[in-house]
Amino acid sequence: MRIDLHCHSTASDGTDTPAELVRNAAAAGLDVVALTDHDTTRGYAEAVAALPRGLTLVTGAELSCRIDGVSMHMLAYLFDPEEPALFAERELVRDDRVPRARGMVAKLNELGVPVTWEQVARIAGEGSVGRPHVATALVELGVVPTVSDAFTEDWLADGGRAYVEKHETDPFEAIRLVKGAGGVTVFAHPGASKRGRTVPESAIAELAAAGLDGIEVDHMDHDAETRVRLRGLATDLGLLTTGSSDYHGSRKTVLLGEYTTDPEVYGEITRRATGAFPVPGTGGA
Asked: Which of 59, 88, 122, 207 has the fewest CB atoms below 10 angstroms from its CB?
């Protein structure tokens, strides 16, 4: 089985629609794909309707969190999307995305970059607006060559010249909320140091004690040494280890299925979840 548990669609900051994502996942030879858009579940219905035969969909989301001043992302799998407490928190985070993006546009203007809110809104479309949309605008203007090059201290990285904070969930609260909705939690790309400050191992240990299920180890932003270190940490803490592409369509160079999760780990995730179940494809629309 080939299993990719971290992918984005146009419901947040990917460039594939949810329908295109599942069709492309099948074409890439995946058996299981997770839809984990940022702080939203709006892509679920379209993905399920288009799900090709032979491909299983894992529903999820990537939750924006912050601990001790450090931003982090929490992958939540197979939770009940209608559970009121988690739904309300996701909406709170999403509602703060627009003023935050407008703030980044204003800071870029102060730095002499002629980006406009209308440009960013056009790029975001119906998705949850975020830094990758602002970064894409910088690429369009020729300020940086790629989206990744916008995530530096010069521009949009945490603490960067055009960075603006947004509401982010305390990760301990995120674990509680996801568990309350019957879901499973995995810390996304915990060693991605090129994105900015990372969460210390002592804090990961505290999250594990609070019920964190796993950490994402095999990821494009982790070098070989980081993967070895994280795998050892997971063993010490009794955490599951996943591998995922963090696919964003054409917004990143990584391909669907470039990094994958062990089938036994996937099986354990599905065993722990009670809020929702993987959806088998029936042929799609």
From this structure: 88
Please state the separation of Cα 132 from the chain's center in Å: 12
Distance between CA atoms of 276 and 26, rounded to whole angstroms? 22
Cβ neighbours for 91, distance < 8 A, ≥ 6 positions apart: none
CB 59 within 8 A of CB 44: yes
Burial readout 131-161 (b: 16 or more C-beta within 10 A, e: otherwise): bbbbbbbbbeeebbeebbebbeeebbbbebe
CB atoms closer than 10 angstroms to residue 19: 19
Three-class SS string for the chain? CCEEEEECCCCCCCCCCHHHHHHHHHHCCCCEEEECCECCCCCHHHHHHCCCCCCEEEEEEEEEEEECCEEEEEEEECCCCCCHHHHHHHHHHHHCHHHHHHHHHHHHHHCCCCCCHHHHHHHHCCCCCCHHHHHHHHHHCCCCCCCHHHCCCCCCCCCCCCCCCCCCECHHHHHHHHHHCCCEEEECCCCCHHHCCCCCHHHHHHHHHCCCCEEEEECCCCCHHHHHHHHHHHHHHCCEEEECCCECHHHCCCCCCCCCCCHHHHHHHHHHCCCCCCEECCCCC
- pLDDT tens for 78-96 read 999 999 999 999 988 888 8
pLDDT (tens digit per residue) in 161-205: 999 988 899 999 999 999 999 999 999 999 998 877 899 999 999
Q: What is the pTM of this model?
A: 0.86
